Amino acid sequence: MTYRVVLGNGAASVALWITVVCSVMTLPPERFSWVWIAAFVVPAAVFYVLRWVLSLRFGWTVVLSAITHTATIVAALAIDGGIARETALGCSLLPPLTYLALRRRGDDVTWALFLSLCTFLIAVILGKPPAGQVWTFLAAGILTLQLDARARAASRRRVWTGSFGRPRVAFASLYSTLLATLAVSLLTLQLMSLIPSEEEQRREAKRRAREGTASVGLSDRFEFGPAGQRLSNLESNELVHVRGIDPPIGYEIYLRTLHFELPRLRKWEQAGPSDRPPVDDSLIVHRGRAAGLRERVIQIETTKDAGDFLFLPPGTLRVEGVGDAMGNPARENYNRSRSRPIAYTVAFQDRRRAAIGQPSEPRRGQLTALPSEFDPHLYHFEGLNDDAGAAEARRNGESPFAIAQRITNVLQQNCRYELRDPGSVVDFISSRRYGFCEHFAAALAVCLRVAGIPSRVAVGLYGSADDVVDDHLVLGSQHAHAWVEILIEGLGWVVFDPTPAAFAGAGDAELPQEGNEDDGASGTALGLWRWARESGAWLIVLLFTLAGVMTLRRRTAPTSERDRVRAMVDRDAAALFRKLMNALTKRSPRMRGQSLWDYARTLQAVDGVPVDAIENAFSAYEEVRFGQRQFDSDRRRRLEDALARMHDQPL
Q1: Strand 492-496 to strand 480-488: parallel, antiparallel, or no bridges (unpaired)?
Q2: Partners of residue 493 on adjacent β-strands
Q3: Can you name the residues that pair with 335 across neighbouring β-strands?
Q4: Across residues 192-210, what is the average pLDDT?
Q5: d(CA 591, CA 581)
Q6: Is the distance from CB of 108 to CB of 100 less than 8 angstroms?
Q7: pLDDT (tens digit, 9 = 90+) per residue, 589-601?
Q8: Would you say the C-alpha torsion 158, 161, 163, 164 has a positive or negative sign?
Q9: What pLDDT is attached to residue 484?
C-alpha cells in the first residue's frame, strides 16, 4: 500500500502548487513584477533546501538565508527600482507560503492554503483578477483540500487516496466537487463586485468630488488673478466637447486657459504686459515638434457657457478654425475676441515623457523669483526641499522633473486633499496640511523656484478616460483644475501635476477606455459569469441544493440487487470486526480516540495476542470500510483467522 499513499500525497502536492501559483498570478503585474516576487520566493526556497534537504544546522540556515534575501532585495532594487507599500505587503506573504508549500508536514498544507487565500484577497482589493483566474484558483484550492484529507486518511489507514469505490459514488464525488467549485466561484465573483478595487475607488472619489461641488478645481476663496478671469466663475457642467481624431480620445488631457507667473501668499497673478494683440492660427504655437513623441489631433467644440476662453493643450503644434483671437505667443496666453460657440482643431504633443531627463531652460528673472512677503516663510519650503533631497539632486544633475517628483512625494505624504480652504500656501504646508489642487500646485511651484527651477501655475480643464461619453470628452466647470508647468530646455512649458491621482490623475500613461466590464475575462467564462450575475442568488442556491442532493444520494441505501448484496457483505465484514474487537478488549481495552494502528502497537506488549494476524485483520477491514474495496475471500479469511487465533488463546 505504500506506493499508493505516496501517489495520493503527490496528487495533493501538485494541487497545492497549482493553488499557490494561481494565487500569485492573480496579483496585478503592474504592481507585482516577477523580479520582486522572485526576490521573496528564492530565499524561502533556499531556506528549505538548506534545512530539510541538506540537513544544515538551524543557525547556519538562518544566516545563509538572510544573506540570500539581502542579495535578492539589492538585485531587485537595481533591476526594478523601489517597491510600493502594497507590493511589500503582498510580497511579505510569499516566503512563508513558499516554505510551507515545499515542506508540507503536518498542518503545512492548511496554512499554505490560508496564505494563498490572503494573497488572493490582496489581488482582489488592488485590481480584481480576471474571472478565469478566480475559477482556477478556487477549483485548485477545493481540490487540494479534498486530496490532502484523503492523503492524511491514507497515511493513517494505509489505503489509496485515489480509490473512490463504485462508479456511481465516484461520479457523485466528482460532480459534487465541480458543483461546489462552481458555486463558490460564482459567490466569490459576486462578492468581488461589492469590493471596490483601488482603481474604482479613485474613480468614485473623482466622481463624488465633481458632483459634490464645482469648486473641486478652482475655489472661489483661493484667488488666481482678477475675478473676471477666474475659471471658477464658470458654472456650466458642459464647457467643451473634445473628440479624438488621431488617435481616438481615451487618454488624459489638460486644456490650459490661464497661467500665473507672479506668486503671492494667497494668490498668484499674471505677469505683464497685459496687452494682447490680435493673433492668427499660425502664431498659436508653443514650441517646435519634439522628436520621438506622437502627435495627437483633437477637435474642440465650445458651448455658449465657455465665454471667451480659448482652451488649448500644452504642447500645441497647430490650431485651425479659431478665428479672431488675441494673445501673446511668447507667453502662450490666448483669448478669443468674441464669446460664441466655435469648433476648432488642435494638433499637440504630450511632452511629459520627453521632459523626464531634460534640464530646465536657463531663464531666470521672474520665473524663479519670489516676492519679499515670502522671506519670513521660506524656511517652510526649504525644509520641504531638504526632506525631498532637492538641493543634492540638483547638484547631482537630476532633471527638473525628477526633482519635482521628489518634492511631490513629500508633499503628498504630509498634506491631504480636502475641499476646504486652509488659507495661504504657507498654512497649507505648515499647519493645516489640507487643501485642493491650487494649494498643491502653488506649494510645488514655490519649492521649485526655491530650488532654482523656472515654474509657474496654470489653470484650465482636466479630463481623463473616466470622462469619455461615447467617443468624446465632456468637460465642464467641475473639471476645473490647477497644475504646475516647468520650463524645459527645447520643449517649453511642460505639465507636472502634483495633486493626488485620485483627484487629478497625475501621470503620463495613456488610460484605457471605460466600458470593459469583464476585468480581463473573456469567452465562455465571461458569458457564464454574466449569466450567473443576472440570475442572482437563486442560481447559487440551486447549485448548492443539487450538490446536497448528490451527497445525500451517496449516503442513502442502495437500490440495485448488486448494491444490496454489497451492503450485506459490508455488514458481514463489520460483524466479524466487532467480534474481533470484543475479543481484544478483554485482553487490553482500546483507549478513546485511539486509532487502530496505535491500538495495534499497544497490543504488542500484551501476552497471548497474535499481533501479525491482528494487523492483517485491521488492514483488511479498513480496505473494505474506508477504501471501498470488495470483501472478498482473502479479506474474509484474514478477519476469521485473527478471530479464531484469539479464541484459541487462554485468558
Answers
A1: antiparallel
A2: 487
A3: 309, 326
A4: 52
A5: 12
A6: yes
A7: 888 777 888 888 8
A8: positive
A9: 93
Task: Name the more confident of 134 and 62.
Answer: 62
Q: Torsion angle of alpha carbons 544, 546, 549, 551, nearest 10°?
A: -70
Of 452, 451, 418, nearest to 435 by C-alpha is: 418
Reported as a pLDDT band with limits 50, 70 and 90, residue 556 is very low
Calpha distance 286→284 (Å, rounded):
7
In this structure, are strands 343-348 and 480-488 parallel, antiparallel, or unpaired?
unpaired
Where are any strands of DSSP class E within 478-585? 480-488, 492-496
Three-state DSSP class for residue 389? coil
Among 41-55, 81-95, 249-263, 559-573, top mean pLDDT goes to 41-55
Q: What is the pLDDT of residue 608?
A: 78
Three-state DSSP class for 204?
helix
Residues forming a β-bridge with 255: 461
The position carrying cell 544546522 is 57
pLDDT (mean) for 213-241: 49
Cβ-contact 518, 131 below 8 angstroms: yes
Cα–Cα distances (Å) from 233 to 218, 354, 418, 480, 626, in that order, read: 9, 34, 20, 10, 80
Nearest Cα to 442, choosing from 489, 381, 393, 502? Answer: 381
Whether the predicted pLDDT of 403 surpasses 90: yes
Return d(Cα 64, Cα 70) in angstroms, integer: 10
Residue of 423, 419, 424, 387 whose CA lies nearest to 499: 419
Give the C-alpha distances (Å, rounded to integers) separating 397 from 331, 351, 409: 27, 20, 19
Cell numbers 511651484 correspond to 445
Is the whole model's pTM more than 0.85, yes or no?
no
pLDDT, greater one: 627 or 636: 636
> Nearest to residue 14, comparing CAs of 117, 131, 109, 134?
109
Q: Between 561-587 and 596-603, two packed helices, what is the crossing angle to 10 degrees?
A: 40
Report the alpha-carbon distance of residue 356 to residue 521 in Å, rounded: 35
Tell me how far CA of residue 156 lies from CA of 125, 141, 475, 597, 616, in angstroms: 40, 23, 70, 8, 15
Give the whole-angstrom CA distance, residue 354 versus residue 582. 88
Q: CB–CB of 255/312 below 8 Å?
A: yes
Cα(387)–Cα(381) distance, integer angstroms: 10
CA distance 553 to 567: 15
Q: Is 229 exposed, middle or buried (0-12, 13-18, 19+ CB in 10 A)?
A: middle
Q: Is residue 424 over pLDDT 60?
A: yes
For residue 53, pLDDT beyond 70: yes
CB atoms under 10 Å from CB of 272, counted, come to 9
Q: Quick one: cell of 329? A: 505667443
Contacts of 49 (CB under 8 A, 6+ apart): none
Alpha helices in 26-159 (DSSP H): 34-48, 58-80, 85-91, 94-103, 108-126, 131-157
Q: Residue 205: is its pLDDT beyond 90?
A: no
Question: How big is the chain, counted in residues?
Answer: 651
Rounded CA-CA distance 546/542 in Å is 6
Strand partners, 325: 279, 336
Which residues have C-beta within 8 Å of that of residue 643, sequence separation ≥ 6? Answer: 576, 579, 580, 583, 617
In sequence order, the β-bridge partners of residue 345 are 299, 320
**pLDDT tens, position by position, 301-319:** 988 888 778 889 988 888 8
Dihedral angle computed from the Cα positions of residues 296, 250, 494 and 302, in that order, rounded to the nearest 10 degrees: 80
Q: What is the DSSP letter of 268?
A: B
User: Which residue reads 476662453 in cell numbers?
Assistant: 309
Indicate the residue type of 254: Y
Question: Mean per-residue pLDDT for 573-586?
Answer: 84
The SS3 of residue 547 is helix
